[in-house]
Amino acid sequence: MPELPEVEVVKQGLERILLKQPRIVQMQFLRPDLRDPIPQQLLKKLEGAKILRVRRRAKYLIFETQAGGFLSHLGMTGAWRRELDISAKSQSGLHDHIRIFLDSAECLIYHDPRRFGIFDILNEETQRKRFAHLGPEPLSKDFTGLTLWQSLRGKSVSLKAAIMDQKIVVGVGNIYASEALFLAKIKPQIKAHQLSKDRAHTLVQMIQAVLERAIAAGGSTISDYSNAEGRTGYFQNQFKVYDRGNKPCHECGGLIKQAVIAGRSTYWCSKCQA
DNA sequence: CTCCTATCCTGCGAGC
DNA sequence: TGCTCGCAGGATAGGA
Questions:
Q1: Is A99 in the active site?
Q2: Strand C: which bases are under 7 Å from protein Cβ?
Q3: Is the CB of A157 under 7 A from strand B?
Q4: Which terminus of chain A has a lower count of CB atoms within 10 Å, N or C?
Q5: Distance of alpha carbon A166 from alpha carbon A59, whole angstroms
Q6: Is A222 near strand C, with its CB below 7 A from some atom of it?
Q7: Which residue is nearest nucleotide B9, judged by alpha carbon to C1' distance?
Q8: How far is Cα A177 from Cα A207, in angstroms, rounded to an integer?
Q9: Is the CB of A130 under 7 A from strand C?
Q10: Is the pTM higher than 0.90?
Q11: Distance set, CA A99 to CA A38, A57, A88 (Å)
């Protein structure tokens, strides 16, 4: 489901919900069988603590409490939603995995049909495991044409696979990789090391542009994404190439092509991205 | 090392 | 209408 813009929008929604720093009354684990088993005992220790703030790193949400932090990765189909005035005994939905009851009479519920998501305690070990290998944030000053160009040296993978590699830059997934390459007018199939410094500079600008526009549009809703307040995004209406195989390019009228690159569906304009 | 493939899951839409 | 098949926003282990 979510790439950086969607996770960022979820974060912003959670911030509004958690503005008054509610206390965790209870963490309830309905289905601990996510990608990795949820460390329930460690997380239970956060009961009673106030949630101080929510951050985002890459596609992870990080919740900070008085007693330590925890993290959430939405995988493909993970979603947080808020419900009001429900009890721990109330019926849960089929794919509801976690419920966090707050002293504000609200409840945060994590829902994830495909179970690719991650929910974990935040400590030195998990930070190392989850974050140590991650590259720069695409919207930060650490991500420039020069740093991207340098990190692609010697890489023979396709450029599209490279910008989806979280070690090169975080947050860019399958949709925004195709969209950014279209805006930069670069063919996704070229080898990563073939990108010139000039075009690396352009690509960085276009990655940043597409992510910022998507955040402003509330993210992209393909089938089931919505933010924590239940609102869907509308950036999917602005896709230039993603999911537009065999359709005309909005810019030049040329044919949008589709192929599998590094195991993922990829879209590009046969004329704009020569 | 680097790169590629298969895999973890469920749900949904296309096509028959 | 009902079935099967292929594919879906991510990340990683394991093999070449």
A1: no
A2: 7-12
A3: yes
A4: C
A5: 10
A6: yes
A7: A114
A8: 8
A9: yes
A10: yes
A11: 13, 22, 8
